[in-house]
Amino acid sequence: MIRPNRRVKQKEIADEVGISKARVHHILTTVLGYRKVSARWVPRQLTVEVKAQRKDMCNQFLERYNAEGEAFLQRILTGDESWVHHYDI
């Protein structure tokens, strides 16, 4: 059940097989060596101060863009950070 659908829930497996959810968890983790890896996005709650700082920075950027034009935009660098883990025995 896990190979075709890695998002299957332990309760679904327990209902299908007819055993307890705790037993399914034991079999998946201990016997088969699987582990659940999940990421969840949580909305950030911004404080009034942080919102004010962001607004001030945006106004400063807008003023610089109005004064300098496209030259200001050409100096902005953007990037993405990637983490790579390499394990060599």
Automatic annotation (TrEMBL):
InterPro entries: RNaseH_sf, Transposase-MT_Hybrid
Coiled coil, from the record: none
One Gene Ontology term of the molecular function aspect: nucleic acid binding
Annotated Gene3D superfamilies: Ribonuclease H-like superfamily/Ribonuclease H (3.30.420.10)
Protein name, per record: Histone-lysine N-methyltransferase SETMAR-like protein
Organism encoding this protein: Plakobranchus ocellatus
Lineage, uppermost ranks: Eukaryota, Metazoa, Spiralia, Lophotrochozoa, Mollusca
